[in-house]
Backbone:
């Protein structure tokens, strides 16, 4: 690859704001060269070839995994760092108790010192990108500057990047500025700063996806949630899936789950053989931008162009679509290797010989693949990719699902009474922590709308905004909560999950069509066991009853915890939510 400081289009067609910003970053960071990404496949292949040449990427077995590569991160840089992630608004109250906060001027000063001269001897990549189809009025653009070729390649897979995005930026006259450097990968000099009032991001000291691919969590959730409030829409941590029932009607569902709780699997679900006639289409696996439409419905686009999915557990049985998808043109991070250079992770057959750190595999040192090892792959490689994935209007949403990972308390599924109750249901979500973020795994924490690490402003204002958006919808989606992770006293999962989850989604769709039954279970509307189609499944009737049961005592405790949590938001908490919480307690009392 040449030193390519060449611009991808004539200077006269470029936004001046972009060129001036790139120049100011160049002066601050002092790179050896500047590369403007044009987003072509040949550029991506060139960058990958360079990374292979200098030993940062390993080419995987070309027969079994053509055009697939392995990247090993620094062992201290394997997950999002929530404790080092900040929202820097002028007023601390705007960031809310749900965010770490730093004064914007102090944060800029701190970051300026970290970035000063940080790219000496390195190449600076300029990545213009568009989150969402480039011709969609719902899409928004950004430019990421990074000194990591791995990050640049990942952004080229995960976003609509290159010339078309630059043209759109020149036309829109606005973009999100994202400045990133891996620095020295020193955990003590690592910060992920967001300046929503300035539409900018500064990230230093990590190369991990959620900290470094700035289009993803930083832009498409934290900054976009702020923009969405100002503009009247929602930026959410949700997959989007289309389900066509045997009557040939397609319904789209948007579902929020915390990280590493199976969003990618649900978005690419394979219908069980005993439920013939169903088809599944993936629109997105992680982020949804939801806009009220002129027809009173909620319309969704996926702002991303690829998947950054958790690998362990993926196999032909659990997710055949994903398993097939990642056999070609895929960038793996922190998986193990077999003797013939095939990638390996827990959940696959075969034997690893090298662990994720490149050491001879020794089971005494823990799993061979890192529990948060990932694949990065273009969405179009997904055999179940929806034909509407690039539809500029998006897709209409029939149902919104909130899901957590709870070994007890939450039933398999229930429906909120209406949108307003649904906002409370979403705000009450709690889930066990996973390896996607640093910190202890398996601890229950409140994770409203699965947005706890991603909401770019005060949650109380966010719930108010949800209530306002709902009030504008004449045909709002129905709202449900699910829990695929309930266990028995021996710790065994009660529900098989994966493809079988379609049985629960099918009930929801029948509810949307006014065809399925439900009873008021105090907490909301629950299916009776007969309402869930379990034909062809080996599920004992008492297991299904247990899955659909609500322990009033445990739930009362849950409501108390929810109240304590929500009350931290004080006066900013919408009064409607207090009233609805009281109503919920009364309904439970009978
Ligand atoms: C992700 C996450 O990578 O939520 O999607 O951490
Ligand atoms: Mn996610």
Residues:
């Amino acid at each position: 690859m040449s030193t390519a400081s060449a611009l991808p289009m004539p200077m006269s067609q470029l936004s001046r704001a972009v060129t001036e910003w790139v120049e100011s970053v160049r002066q601050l960071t002092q790179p050896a060269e500047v590369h403007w990404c044009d987003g072509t496949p040949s550029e991506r292949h060139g960058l990958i070839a360079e990374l292979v040449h200098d030993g940062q990427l390993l080419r995987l077995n070309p027969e079994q995994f053509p055009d697939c590569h392995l990247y090993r991160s620094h062992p201290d840089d394997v997950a999002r760092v929530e404790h080092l992630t900040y929202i820097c608004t002028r007023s601390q109250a705007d960031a809310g108790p749900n965010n770490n906060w730093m004064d914007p001027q102090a944060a800029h000063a701190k970051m300026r010192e970290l970035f000063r001269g940080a790219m000496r001897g390195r190449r600076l990549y300029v990545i213009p990108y568009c989150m969402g189809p480039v011709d969609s009025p719902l899409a928004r653009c950004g430019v990421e500057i990074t000194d990591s070729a791995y990050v640049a390649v990942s952004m080229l897979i995960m976003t609509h990047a290159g010339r078309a995005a630059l043209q759109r930026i020149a036309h829109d006259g606005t973009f999100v500025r994202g400045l990133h450097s891996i620095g020295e990968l020193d955990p003590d000099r690592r910060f992920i700063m967001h300046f929503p009032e300035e539409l900018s991001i500064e990230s230093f000291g990590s190369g991990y996806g959620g900290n470094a691919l700035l289009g993803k969590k930083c832009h498409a959730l934290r900054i976009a949630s702020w923009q969405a409030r100002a503009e009247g829409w929602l930026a959410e941590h949700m997959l989007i899936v289309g389900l066509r029932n045997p009557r040939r009607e397609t319904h789209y569902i948007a579902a929020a789950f915390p990280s590493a709780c199976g969003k990618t699997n649900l978005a690419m679900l394979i219908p069980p053989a005993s439920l013939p006639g169903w088809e599944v289409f993936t629109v997105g696996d992680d982020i949804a931008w939801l806009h009220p439409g002129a027809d009173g419905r909620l319309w969704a686009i996926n702002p991303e162009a690829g998947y950054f999915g958790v690998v362990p557990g993926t196999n032909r049985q659990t997710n055949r679509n994903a398993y097939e998808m990642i056999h070609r043109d895929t960038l793996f991070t922190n998986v193990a290797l077999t003797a013939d250079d095939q990638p390996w992770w827990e959940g696959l057959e075969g034997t690893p010989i090298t662990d994720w750190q490149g050491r001879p595999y020794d089971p005494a040192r823990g799993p061979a693949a890192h529990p948060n090892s990932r694949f990065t792959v273009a969405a179009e490689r997904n055999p179940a990719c929806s034909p509407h994935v690039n539809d500029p209007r998006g897709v209409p949403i029939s149902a919104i699902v909130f899901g957590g990972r709870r070994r007890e308390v939450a039933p398999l599924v229930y429906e909120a009474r209406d949108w307003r109750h649904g906002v409370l249901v979403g705000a009450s979500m709690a889930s066990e922590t996973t390896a996607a973020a640093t910190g202890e795994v398996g601890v229950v924490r409140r994770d409203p709308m699965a947005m706890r690490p991603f909401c770019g402003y005060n949650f109380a204002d966010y719930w108010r905004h949800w209530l306002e958006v709902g009030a504008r919808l004449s045909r709002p989606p129905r709202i449900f909560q699910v829990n695929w992770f309930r266990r028995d006293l021996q710790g065994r999962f009660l529900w098989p999950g994966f493809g079988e989850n379609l049985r629960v989604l099918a009930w929801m769709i029948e509810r949307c069509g006014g065809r399925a039954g439900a009873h008021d279970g105090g907490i909301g509307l629950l299916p009776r066991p007969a309402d869930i189609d379990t034909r062809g499944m080996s599920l004992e009737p008492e297991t299904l009853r247990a899955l659909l049961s609500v322990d009033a005592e445990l739930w009362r405790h849950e409501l108390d915890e929810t109240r304590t949590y929500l009350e931290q938001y004080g006066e900013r908490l919408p009064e409607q939510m207090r009233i609805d919480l009281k109503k919920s307690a009364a309904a439970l009392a009978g």
Q: What stands out?
A: The mean pLDDT is 95.
